[in-house]
Design goal:
With 71 residues, the protein is an alpha+beta fold. It contains one helix and four strands, in the order E-H-E-E-E. The chain is globular and about 40 Å long.
């Protein structure tokens, strides 16, 4: 069962956990996450962290269209 074995996947998934942190707290939390050996899947609407991650999926909605950018 995947739910009972999530800790063995080596994957950390977080959704909008940074949005309520101030800038200092946000960067300290990210620094901590990047020291981990886990693969990280982080959903955020915070633009100032974009350059901290080498692999990104960015979803942009504009004029009723949605574009997906993989970097």
């Amino acid at each position: 069962n995947i739910l009972t074995n999530m800790d063995s996947l080596g994957l950390l998934m977080m959704d909008e956990v940074l949005d309520k942190l101030d800038v200092t707290g946000r960067f300290k939390f990210i620094e901590y996450l990047l020291e981990s050996d886990e693969q990280l899947f982080l959903v955020s609407h915070t633009d100032d962290i974009n350059n901290l991650f080498s692999n990104k999926i960015q979803i942009v909605k504009s004029n009723g269209m949605t574009e997906v950018f993989i970097q």
